[in-house]
């Protein structure tokens, strides 16, 4: 088993009393004061996540944006430089190699933020078809990523001199002031919690002082550091996909209700023919939300059944919702079952039948 990778400020997380766990090949802080407290801080005030494990890659050269638009699913031509876009890198059968964010810097420069464990695969897939003059550079350890999330996130950024008046999914390059020093950062108005928030990308070597400055202001506005546990409960409440759960090389965008991230009218992107054919015929399964109506918490890989015991699907993610105070899950349901929104199903949780209502996420209101 390979040794886990460490982020740029692992020492600071340890000093803050974080518990750690493996995720995507990295040793990640799971919680500090407890998942529920951190979750609540993000929903009600502000939290800061260290997600420096996320990948980073630079696509550069004449026609870089056009090249990315011909490979990844979303239509990059629909946004302007200075905007970011959620997109998918698919295989030829329509499965999802990864979901990622593209930052459109200009016609000749696109910055990518893939998931940690998939960065090398995405870089290789793009490099394999890149024309002469376009380079794809893995910059995984050149930049850190701090997600400042919650209704007071703009207050935190303003306190360290960063821009906050950008529209959703816009980004800007700026300088963060910490004491007598300024640090160049990229700031994007996005996140993975359903709350208003920003992702701040400093240079890897600057991660420590930048995190310190942000955390000081997060605490000043009533927030706290948050770990992987709260990140998961927050994203599950929003119904956001996590690669390896709701998206994978065996789960297509059509099945995961991620077709909105596909530029269907584009002439080319990885997996286009397979995805168009599946869209036309209809996917064999679709992603739904499940809200527990009994006592219990559904978990990933639990079977979903009808009242008479027929298996009709499987949970892809499941957790206790700190906001709703009940169990929730995301699940792939067989289309042929006829089960849809409003239906009652049961989830097999370690041999016990947990009744659930089928819903369409999000489970809570978005404030992005």
Overview of this protein structure:
The protein has a 6-stranded mixed beta sheet, with helices on both faces. Strands 14-17-16-15-18-19 form a 6-stranded antiparallel β-barrel. A 5-stranded antiparallel beta sheet has the order 5-6-7-4-8. The longest helix has 14 residues, at 207-220. By secondary structure, the chain is α+β, with helices and mostly antiparallel strands. The protein has helices spanning 10-15, 35-44, 64-69, 119-127, 153-159, 207-220, 228-238, 272-281, and strands at 19-23, 26-31, 47-50, 57-60, 83-90, 96-106, 109-113, 135-138, 146-149, 171-178, 181-188, 197-202, 224-225, 285-292, 303-305, 311-321, 326-334, 344-349, 352-359.
Radius of gyration: 21 Å
Overall mean confidence score, pLDDT: 97
Basic shape:
globular
Counted by DSSP, the helix tally is 8
Number of strands: 19
Biggest sheet descriptor = 6 strands, mixed
Low-confidence stretches: none
Q: Which class of secondary structure composition applies to the elements?
A: alpha+beta
Q: Helical content, roughly?
A: 10-25%
């Amino acid at each position: 088993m390979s040794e886990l990778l460490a982020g740029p400020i692992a020492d600071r997380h340890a000093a803050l009393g974080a518990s750690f766990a493996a995720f995507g090949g990295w040793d990640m802080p799971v919680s500090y004061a407890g998942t529920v407290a951190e979750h609540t801080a993000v929903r009600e005030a502000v939290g800061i996540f260290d997600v420096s494990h996320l990948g980073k890659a630079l696509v550069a050269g004449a026609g870089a944006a056009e090249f990315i638009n011909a490979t990844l699913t979303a239509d990059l031509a629909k946004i302007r430089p200075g905007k970011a876009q959620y997109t998918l890198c698919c295989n030829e059968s329509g499965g999802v190699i990864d979901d990622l964010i593209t930052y459109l810097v200009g016609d000749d420069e696109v910055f990518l933020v893939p998931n940690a464990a998939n960065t090398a695969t995405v870089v290789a897939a793009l490099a394999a078809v890149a024309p002469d003059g376009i380079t794809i550079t893995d910059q995984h350890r050149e930049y850190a990523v701090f997600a400042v999330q919650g209704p007071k996130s703009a207050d935190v950024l303003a306190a360290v001199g960063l821009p906050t008046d950008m529209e959703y999914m816009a980004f800007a390059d700026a300088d963060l002031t910490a004491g007598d020093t300024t640090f160049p950062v990229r700031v994007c108005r996005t996140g993975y919690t359903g709350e208003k928030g920003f992702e701040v990308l400093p240079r890897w070597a600057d991660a420590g002082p930048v995190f310190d400055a942000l955390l000081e202001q997060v605490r000043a506005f009533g927030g706290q550091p948050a770990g992987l546990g709260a990140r998961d409960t927050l994203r599950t409440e929003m119904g956001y996909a996590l690669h390896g759960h709701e998206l994978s090389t065996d789960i297509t965008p059509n099945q995961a209700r991620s077709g909105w991230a596909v530029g269907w009218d584009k002439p080319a992107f990885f997996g286009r023919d397979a995805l168009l054919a599946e869209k036309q015929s209809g996917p064999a399964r679709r992603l739904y939300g499940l809200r527990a109506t009994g006592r219990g918490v559904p978990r990933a890989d639990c079977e979903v059944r009808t009242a008479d015991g027929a298996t009709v699907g499987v949970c892809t993610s499941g957790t206790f919702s700190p906001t709703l105070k009940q169990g929730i899950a995301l699940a792939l349901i067989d289309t042929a079952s006829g089960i849809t929104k409003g239906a009652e199903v049961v989830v097999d949780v370690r041999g016990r039948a947990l009744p659930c209502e089928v819903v369409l996420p999000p489970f809570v209101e978005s404030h992005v």
